[in-house]
Amino acid sequence: MPTFEYKVRDKKGKLLKGKMAVLDKQKLIEKLQKSQLNIIEIHEVKEKKKEEGKKGGGILDKVRIGRGVSDDEMAFFTRQLATILRAGVSLNRIISILYNQAKSRRLKQAIHEVGIDLQKGSSFTDALKKHPAIFDEMYVSMVSVGEIGGNLPTAVARVADILEKSLAIKKKIRAAMAYPVFILIFSTILVYVLLAHFLPIFTPLFDEFGLDLNKDYPITAFLVKLSDVVTNTKGVIAAVIVIIAIVIAFKLFTRSKFGKMVMDTIALNVPGFGGLVRQAALARFCRSFASLFAAGVPMLKAMELVAGAAGNTVVSAAIERMAGNIRGGKSLSEALSKEKVFPEIVVDMVKIGEESGSLTEMMEKTADYFDQNLDNAVTTLTSILEPAMMVFVGGVVGIFVIGVILPMLSITSKMKV
């Protein structure tokens, strides 16, 4: 019978450590939860030889859910899986049904291979583990807890909740950014048309009447120079090359650890947009942690999984530091209070949850609070952006009107004389 060491906190927040021999990890989790203890960490005590054999494997790479498969399809697949499981249909039959409904080639192939492994006698968890690019560590951990505890439908339903909420957050942010992106593209096309086709019609008139654009009409002179660049084939090619080089350099920078940290820090602090990113990250953290903890995943393991799925490296780093503080004996609320990225309301709600033994419920309510805040922030930002973008487009057009009308008025006065 395997032996497990564990760390828990009682209702008063006191840190307790212990060791127990049980049939499996899930049995220990059930015993500790029945005693109304918050599980922080559980690990099996193994012989040194076995540990040496496993040394070097390390922690599984954290891969974001749905890589290679759209977030929509991943959420839909998981919700269908949970629904059919609750109907009492066998897992092998469910896999066959979901295989026929899958649209993306990668998900279809993964489901097919999972089905083959199940027919060979493999557990559902082990079958999913072979496809980390689609089913990440959080997904597999939730399924493992449900499978071991005999409550797979509920565990999969929790995963579906996480995916659907995460997808909803992404759609809200995309909706907020869709309008300004459209206006930016529209403005770029408009500027090109005005510079390449509209302004050149008037440029010969300015030369014919001998206007000193640099001295009398600096805005017009600037626009004429831009027009020369845009209508020059070599200039356009050079500009395209420079833009492509900048885009490639930017992508390489953002893929680096330092670059991600810099960009995520900027994203959290950009006026208006930063609030959306922060609300989304906090909602994702609270809901994912609540789901994992409710499923019986130990606190430190839940923190590790949530850090990998936070969607922001600044938030991920804060969660990792929190895990270190919890491992050192701090409570979750104490660890949260040390990180500035988490507002006071999160600390207060977690503290109430720890004291009342309802940590999962408090975290879910906090996630709902941030979801509502995100909705309000999107609505507010959209209402501000719409007139702001209209003013921006009007300003672009106004510059061209001024740049053309003023010298044309001068030409008209000279023609009258």
Q: What is the name of the CATH class of the largest domain?
A: Mainly Alpha
Number of domains: 3
- Going by helix content, strand content and strand pairing, the class is mainly alpha
What is the total tally of β strands? 3
CATH fold category name of the largest domain: Receptor-associated Protein
Number of helical segments?
18
Shape, per Cα inertia axes: elongated
The SSE order reads EEHEHHHHHHHHHHHHHHHHH
Low-confidence segments, given as residue ranges, are: 48-67
The CATH architecture of the largest domain comes to Up-down Bundle
Secondary-structure map:
Layout: E1 3-9, E2 15-21, H1 25-34, E3 38-45, H2 48-54, H3 71-86, H4 91-101, H5 105-119, H6 124-129, H7 137-148, H8 152-208, H9 213-216, H10 218-231, H11 233-255, H12 257-269, H13 273-294, H14 299-308, H15 313-327, H16 332-337, H17 344-356, H18 359-416
Antiparallel strand pairs: 1-2, 1-3
Helix pairs in contact: 3-4, 3-8, 4-5, 7-8, 8-10, 8-13, 8-18, 10-18, 11-12, 12-13, 13-14, 13-18, 14-15, 17-18
Account of the 3D structure:
This protein has a 3-stranded antiparallel sheet with strand order 2-1-3. Helix content is 75%, strand content 5%. With 417 residues, the protein is mainly alpha-helical. 33% of the residues are buried. The longest helix is centred in the last third of the chain and has 58 residues, at 359-416. Mean pLDDT is 82; it is low at 48-67. The protein has 3 domains: 3-54; 71-164, Up-down Bundle (Receptor-associated Protein); 167-417, Type II secretion system (T2SS), domain F (Receptor-associated Protein). Helix 13 (273-294) runs antiparallel to helix 14. The protein has helices at 25-34, 48-54, 71-86, 91-101, 105-119, 124-129, 137-148, 152-208, 213-216, 218-231, 233-255, 257-269, 273-294, 299-308, 313-327, 332-337, 344-356, 359-416; strands spanning 3-9, 15-21, 38-45.
